[in-house]
Amino acid sequence: MREPVRIELSETERERLVGMTRSRTLPSRLVLRARIVLLAAEGLSNRVIGANLSIDFKTVMRWRNRFLAERFDGIERERPGRGRKAVIAVEAVQDVVHTTLQVKPEGTTHWSVRSMAKASGLGKSTIHRIWKAHGLKPHRVESFKLSTDPDFEAKLVDIVGLYLNPPEHAIVLCADEKSQIQALDRTQPGLPMKPGRCGTMTHDYKRNGTTTLFAAMSTLDGKVIGECMPRHRHQEWLKFLKLIDRKAPKGLDLHIICDNYRTHKHEVVRTWLEKHPRFHIHFTPTGSSWLNMVERYFRDITEKQIRRGVFRSVDELECTIQAAIDQHNQAPRPYIWTAEAKDILAKVIRARAASVDPRFSGTLQ
Prior knowledge:
The protein is α/β, with parallel strands linked by helices.
C-alpha cells in the first residue's frame, strides 16, 4: 500500500493547529481538521488516523491533501456545497427589496418574513436570504435622540471638561431630581425564591402616593447628597441647593451640573445664586440627560431598591431611599467618565447625517 506523503509543519503552524484543537469557540469541523493534520504530521497513515478519530479514511485523505496543497486556507475555507443551486430572478429580488423599503404592509407597521412571503409568492427562507444579503431587518428598530440645542457643542465641551479635568479647589456635583417615585404596595404577597423557581410578585398593585428624590453626586468620590420632597417646584430646588451649601466643605467652589428644567432657572433661584458666588451652574444641552452622571445613580437605586420594593406608605418609601443613600455613602464608588468631547461630537455628526440621509451607515451608539 502506498504510504501517504508526510506533512512537515513549522513551529508557527504547529502552535496554530494545537490552538485550534483546544478552542471552545471554533466549529467542531475545524477542530477535527486540525487534529487530522497534527496526526498526519506524526507520520500516521490515513486509515490509522481514521480509526483514532472514528471517521472514514477518505475524509482523512481529503483534508490531508488540502492542507498539503493550500495549508490553512485549505482546511478553513469552505467550498460551495453540491447539488442544484437555487435561482431567484433579479427582478424578484429587487421587488422584495423595494417593497420592504418603500411599501407599508396593510394592517401592520412592518413586514415579517411570513407576510412578505405571502405578498411576494416566494418562500420564507428565500425572503430571509434576500433580507440578509441586503442587510434588511424590518423587525428591528433603533431609537435615537438628537439635541436641538443651538449651544450643544459649547455645553458638551464645558461639562466633559469638568469630568475629565475638574478645576482645583472645587467640587463637581451632578444634580437632578427623580420625580414621581411611586409607593406601590402589592395586592397579594408574593412567593420567595427557591431552587428551581424564581420569586413571584403580583402584576397589579395599590398606589400609596409619590415622592421626589433630589440628589447631587460628587464626581470625585461618588458620595451622594440626597433628600426626598413631596413636589419638585423651584421652592424645593432652592431648598436642595441650600442643603448642598450646608453639607459641602466651606471654602470650595461648587460646580453644579443639572438640566434645563424651568425650576432650575427660576428668578428666585437666580437671585439666590447671585448671593452665593461659590455656586457655578452648568446646564446640560436640551435633550441630553445622558450627560448628567447622576442619572446612572438614579438607575441603580431604581433597580436595587425601588422596582421590586413593597411600600405601604410614602414615608416607608422615603425611609428606604434615605437608607440606600446612607449605605451608598459608607463605601461610595465614583462613576468614571472616559469619553472625550471630540469623540462624542463625531458620533453626533454621524447621527445627524443619518437622520438626513437614511443611506448613511453611521449611527449614534
